[in-house]
């Protein structure tokens, strides 16, 4: 009885969290007519998914594919760069008592509390003075910063790398870089994958930064591009209908890569996501 | 090394090369090399913009007057500006409701998941987490469609009962409409944090309680919840920082909300409008800086108040 209650409760939660996703999948298979007239919003009406995909990828000279490519570039380079920088810093903070470490780390902790969007407008003005706005660097460079990732990696490094192992490697004559690469890094791998996922997701999903930094639509990332389309679709009601079908199928496509990443890497992040909060 | 050992075999433990204090100190400076790339990024994209925002906010730029020193004028203007105050009040009010709601949903989901094992548990955990992987822009658009009075399912279901569903983006309901979007988006992520904290609890505690006659709900409320308290504190901080910067969801829903989401709806939307529609970058910087300061203050106060309980920075 009790178990049944637990299961029913869970199923209700799953239904709630899946509802919009289910709707997205169903709506992606409808054409404009099926979407806007009559049929149930939560059930299929004809199957036009491939037709919609074809329209999506060819609309406005393949604008969407360009945005997809941009998103991959921004999230890939920004996310990977952020991970490398944060892992190195976390390792450095955890293993070496260098001069000024505690002051530096206190600054990192303090900056976790600074809302990053508050920095976007001043960064825009700085970049615009340097002629960097409306380039890919305007999106990639600020994405390299994640004080929280540094904090996570420090905690993770401190907990997963035994001092004895490092000392043993030193006695065997290994250099500090080699110790990092051959002893520290393999032990930190689940944490590294988590930080990589988190930073890729936050760059992929970011809206405020690219919206402010980019003005030419050929540099847009997916969220900014889809935001633009939704603005256009609301502005002109008639031709807007066919644009809405593209927005919907485009939304579905933009969600797929991250869902696959989370599914395939779940054994890493399910443990890693919590490393900051357990201690 | 081998030489040393063969010549003085009597006290080998003392002769294995222990580095001297000065050597250790020298080696420790390598930490700077590891942290250097981060230091560069930290200064370039956090310290510099922060200082620059502070600097910009002390000046005003007029078409006729050029750039003039304004002192704290931009700040007195911000705090006296009904638009800024309105936005700030909205996000504060919104945080006050959305944070407990998210924590409650996340806690409930995690406690339920902790009760069972097997395929359903694994599946549910993934599905509840799924919205985290959906960009905020897409999440807002999907819910916008679901809310739609002309073809959304809410309206279709309501029409079966011959009633009219409330339009969740109308002037009076937009608060709840957004509340639902944000709760949907983030609860799964917070659920994972709490769930892992639950998994970290020593199971003998539950067995002991069960022998003493405690029921499952009692164990959940009296043992599990207090033990995951630090995780809830972490969630509160994240959630507070995120909500005060509220931007993407209301910005996207503005198109279809028929004017109930105004250009001064949240401080970030207002800063965006001020900078890019009115080209007042100095005033926008002052707004950003003030918002950042409010967030910093709110989070700092919370951490100071709970410093003895443990949590993120202990």
> Strand-and-helix sequence of chain A, N→C?
HHHHHHHHHHHHHH
Order of helices and strands of chain B: HHHHEEHHHHHHHHHHHH
Average predicted local confidence, pLDDT of chain A: 90
| Count of DSSP-assigned helices of chain B | 16
Average the pLDDT over all residues of chain B and give the rounded result: 86
Q: What is the overall shape of chain A?
A: globular
What is the β-strand count of chain B? 2
| Biggest chain contact | A-B, 100 and 103 residues
Low-confidence stretches of chain A: none
Shape of chain B: flat
Radius of gyration of chain B: 27 Å
Give the neighbour order of strands across the main sheet of chain B. Answer: 1-2
Through-space gap between termini of chain B: 43 Å
Terminal CA distance of chain A reads: 36 Å
Based on the structure given, which CATH architecture of the largest domain in chain A is correct? Orthogonal Bundle
Top CATH class of one domain in chain B: Mainly Alpha
Largest sheet of chain B, in brief, is:
2 strands, antiparallel
What does this structure look like?
The complex is a heterodimer of chains A (279) and B (314). The radius of gyration of chain A is 23 Å and the shape is globular. Chain A is an all-alpha fold. In chain A, α3 packs across α6 and α9 packs across α13. In chain A, 47% of the residues are buried. Chain A has 14 helices and no strands. Chain B has a two-stranded antiparallel ribbon. Chain B is flat, with a radius of gyration of 27 Å. Chain B is mostly helical and 314 residues long. Chain B contains 16 helices and 2 strands. In chain B, 42% of the residues are buried. The N terminus of chain B is likely disordered. In chain B, a hairpin with a 3-residue loop joins β1 and β2. Chains A and B meet through α1, α3, α4, α5 and α9 of A and α4, α6, α7, α8 and α10 of B. Chain B: Belongs to the binding-protein-dependent transport system permease family. Chain B: It is a multi-pass membrane protein. Chain B: It is found in: Cell membrane.
């Amino acid at each position: 009885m009790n178990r049944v209650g637990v299961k029913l409760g869970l199923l209700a939660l799953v239904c709630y969290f899946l509802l919009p996703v289910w709707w997205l999948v169903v709506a992606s298979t409808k054409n404009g007519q099926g979407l806007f007239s009559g049929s149930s919003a939560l059930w299929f009406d004809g199957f036009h998914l491939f037709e919609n995909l074809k329209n999506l990828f060819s609309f406005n000279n393949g604008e969407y594919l360009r945005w997809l490519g941009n998103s991959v570039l921004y999230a890939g380079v920004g996310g990977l760069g952020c991970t490398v920088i944060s892992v190195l810093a976390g390792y450095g903070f955890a293993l070496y008592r260098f001069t000024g470490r505690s002051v530096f780390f206190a600054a990192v902790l303090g900056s976790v509390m600074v809302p990053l969007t508050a920095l976007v407008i001043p960064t825009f003005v700085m970049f615009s003075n340097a002629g960097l706005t409306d380039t890919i660097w305007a999106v990639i460079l600020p994405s390299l910063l994640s004080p929280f990732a540094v904090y996570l990696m420090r905690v993770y490094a401190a907990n997963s790398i035994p001092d004895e192992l490092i000392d043993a490697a030193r006695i065997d004559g290994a250099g500090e870089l080699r110790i990092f690469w051959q002893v520290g890094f393999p032990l930190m791998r689940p944490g590294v994958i988590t930080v990589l996922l988190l930073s890729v997701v936050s760059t992929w999903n970011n809206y405020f930064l690219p919206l402010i930094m980019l003005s030419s639509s050929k540099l847009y990332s997916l969220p900014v591009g889809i935001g633009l389309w939704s603005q256009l679709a609301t502005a002109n009601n008639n031709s807007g209908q066919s644009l809405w079908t593209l927005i919907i199928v485009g939304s579905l496509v933009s969600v797929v890569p991250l869902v696959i990443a989370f599914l395939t890497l779940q054994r890493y992040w399910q443990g890693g996501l919590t490393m900051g909060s357990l201690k | 090394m081998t030489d040393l050992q063969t010549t003085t075999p009597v006290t080998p433990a003392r002769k294995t090369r222990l580095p001297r204090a000065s050597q250790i100190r020298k080696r420790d400076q390598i930490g700077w090399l590891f942290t250097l790339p981060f230091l560069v990024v930290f200064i370039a994209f956090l310290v510099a913009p922060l200082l620059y925002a502070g600097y910009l906010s002390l000046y005003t730029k007029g078409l006729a007057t050029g750039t003039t020193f304004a002192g704290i004028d931009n700040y007195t203007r911000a705090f006296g500006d009904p638009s800024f105050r309105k936005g700030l009040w909205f996000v504060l009010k919104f945080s006050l409701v959305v944070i407990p709601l998210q924590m409650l949903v996340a806690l409930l989901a995690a406690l339920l998941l902790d009760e069972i094992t097997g395929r359903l548990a694994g599946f549910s955990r993934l599905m509840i987490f799924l919205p985290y992987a959906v960009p905020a822009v897409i999440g807002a658009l999907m819910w916008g469609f679901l809310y739609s009075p002309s073809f959304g399912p809410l309206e279709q279901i309501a029409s079966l009962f011959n009633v009219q569903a409330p339009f969740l983006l109308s002037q009076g309901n937009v608060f709840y409409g957004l509340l639902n979007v944000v709760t949907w988006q983030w609860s799964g992520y917070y659920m994972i944090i709490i769930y892992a904290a639950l998994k970290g609890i020593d199971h003998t505690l539950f067995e002991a309680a069960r022998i003493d006659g405690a029921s499952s709900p009692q164990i959940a409320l009296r043992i599990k919840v207090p033990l995951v308290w630090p995780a809830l504190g972490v969630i509160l901080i994240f959630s507070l920082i995120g909500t005060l910067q509220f931007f993407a969801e209301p910005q996207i829903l503005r198109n279809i909300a028929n004017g109930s989401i105004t250009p001064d709806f949240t401080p970030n939307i207002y800063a965006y409008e001020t900078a890019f529609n009115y080209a007042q970058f100095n005033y926008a910087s002052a707004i950003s800086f003030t918002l950042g300061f409010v967030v910093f203050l709110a989070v700092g106060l919370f951490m100071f108040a709970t410093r003895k309980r443990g949590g993120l920075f202990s």
